[in-house]
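SAMPLE LOG
Freezer: B-3
Tube label: C17
Construct: single chain, 241 aa
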Amino acid sequence: MGKRRERRVAPSSDRRQARDNSDARVDQFREQAASERRLFTIFILFFIVIPAVSVFVYSVKYAPNSDRTVTSAHQDDGLVKTDISYQEILNDNSKVSENASHRHYTYPILAYITPWNSKGYEMAKRFANKFTHLSPVWYDLKSQGTGLILEGRHNADTGWISDLRMKGDAWVLPRVVLEALPKELLRKKKLRDKAIDLIVSECKEMEYDGIVLESWSRWAAYGVLHDPEMKKMVNIELHDI
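STRUCTURE (predicted):
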C-alpha cells in the first residue's frame, strides 16, 4: 500500500509544479504586457501629447496680435484683393487705411523714408503710431583721402523729427550707408575707430535713437562676406558700434 501511495503522490506533485510554472509564466506575461503598456503610454505622452500641447501654446502665445476684422475691412475698401490688375496697382498704389493710429501687430515695424519723396515724410507723420522704427535715408560714410567723412547732415529735418515724436513713440534711426573702401575700413583700426566716432557723435548731437547701418552693396562688390578674415573684422566693428 505504501508503494502505491508513493506512486500517486508523484503525479500530484508534478501537477502542482506544472501549475506553478504556468502561473509564473502567466504572471511574467502580465508583467511584460503591463510594461509594454507603460512604454506605449510614455511614448504617446512624450512624442504626441506634449508636442501637440506645445504647438498649441506657442500658436496662442506668439501668434500675431491682429484683429481679424482688419482684413475684411481692407477688403471692403478695396485694399486687399485676390485678383488684381496692373492698372489697379497704378491707380490705387497710394491708397491707405483710414485708421491712422491703431497698430494691429506687436512685433517691430521699420519704414524707410527717402528725402526725394516728400510724400513719404507726410505719410510717416500721419501713421507714426503704426511704426516702431523709422529710418530716413540721410547719411553716407565715405573715404576722403586717407581718412573718412560722414555726409548727409544737410538732409536731416529736425522739425520733422519733432513732429514725429509728438505724434508717436517710434524711434528715429537714420540710415548710414558705408561707401568707404571696405578693405581699408575694416583692416585699419584707426579708420574703424574714426568711423565709430563720426557715427556716434552725429547721433548724440542730433539726438537720434540710433542708426540703420547699410553696407551690403559695397561689401558684396568687394566680396567681404566671402572672406573669413573680413567677416571677423565686420563682427568686431559692429560690436564696437
